[in-house]
Design goal:
Blueprint: H1 5-16, H2 19-46, H3 51-64, H4 67-89, H5 100-126, H6 129-137, H7 142-172, H8 184-195, H9 198-226, H10 228-231
Helix pairs in contact: 1-8, 1-9, 2-5, 2-7, 3-5, 4-5, 5-7, 6-7, 7-9, 8-9
Length: 236
């Protein structure tokens, strides 16, 4: 078997057209997951009655099951639920009109939220309570102490893990092809099938994923250097 090296570049250019969808499926759930993660982390840290056990089950379930199952359950289950509610309440709405990518974003947002909550919770708990007490002693209220003391340090401490989850979800976006989403992996499969050059197409896709991963790592390294001041203690 001889590798068609020039075709790797041809495939690279063709597969790269799917980059916007890949970034959407990667960044969208991370932003949604961040909001979910903050809420879940706050509930678990403050031990809110009734809600905390629900949050614990949520985190355990989504961390303990594959993301591909989350996509399939949401993709197959949400339209049934929406159509059932629409029929019952007379909304006249058909879930089939909702783009499939929306279900992917919802599913992966729940997945990301479970992982984000653990990262955020561990970051917040890593900040010494003495610093918060010191902030109160100089007249700061709870909001000010969280904004100026706790959150900056928690973010700096959590940055490596946030980088890892960013890279992880970049790779996880490849499973969206199972519901006909033409992201990088989906585009690679189509290019490979159309030209019967599977190895070359997958090499091209791997190079794109690798370049994106190095870019994320580089940006994270720059942020870490900027935020080293917070790893040495809070700033007032």
């Amino acid at each position: 078997m001889i590798i068609d090296v020039p075709f790797i570049w041809t495939a690279f250019v063709e597969i790269l057209k799917a980059l916007p969808l890949t970034l959407l499926i990667t960044i969208g759930p991370l932003l949604g997951g961040l909001l979910i993660g903050i809420a879940v982390a706050a509930v678990r840290i403050n031990s809110v009655k009734i809600i905390t056990p629900i949050a614990n089950v949520y985190v355990s379930f989504f961390r303990g099951t594959p993301a591909i199952l989350h996509i399939m359950v949401i993709y197959l289950g949400f339209p049934l639920l929406i159509n059932k509610l629409s029929s019952y309440y007379g909304w006249g709405f058909n879930a089939n009109s909702i783009p499939i990518v929306v279900f992917v974003l919802i599913a992966l947002s729940f997945t990301a939220g479970a992982y984000m909550s653990e990262i955020i919770r561990s970051g917040l708990l890593a900040v010494e309570k003495g610093q918060i007490e010191a902030a109160y002693s100089i007249g700061m209220n709870r909001f000010q102490s969280m904004k100026r003391i706790v959150f900056p340090q928690a973010f700096a401490l959590s940055l490596p893990n946030l980088c890892n989850i960013f890279i992880g979800f970049l790779h996880t976006s490849s499973i969206a092809f199972i519901v006909s989403q033409k992201e990088l992996n989906g585009a690679a499969n189509i290019v490979a099938s159309n030209n019967l050059k599977f190895l070359e197409a997958y090499i091209a896709a791997a190079l794109i994923y690798w370049m994106l991963t190095m870019l994320i790592e580089g940006i994270t390294a720059l942020l870490e250097r900027k935020l080293t001041v917070y790893n040495r203690g809070g700033v007032v």
